[in-house]
Amino acid sequence: MLIRYFGAAKAASGVEEETLPADGPGGVPAGSSLDDLLEFLGARHTEAPADTPPLKSVISRSTFLVNGFAARDRSMALDTSDTVDILPPFAGG
Known about the structure:
- Helix content is 26%, strand content 19%.
- It has helices spanning 7-13, 34-44, 55-60, and strands at 2-5, 17-19, 63-66, 69-70, 83-87.
- The protein has a 5-stranded mixed β-sheet with strand order 2-1-5-3-4.
- The termini are far apart.
- By secondary structure, it is an alpha+beta fold.
- It contains 3 helices and 5 strands.
């Protein structure tokens, strides 16, 4: 599963993207929900740089794309081949 981080999520995770293995250590099993994945990622990236909120906090106010489509139902099942984008609120003018 490919996870792509944008804006504050990128800052909090310390990476632009990461690929998670299908099962085993460091992975999320096939059929896990989006909510399961988000909980996993929040627990995986607990140390954010100074003056940056932790990823779990950023996730709580983010929107998500799964394979390029808006994912509003966090109970939706994911496949290990999915791409998940984490999009925190963007500021600017």
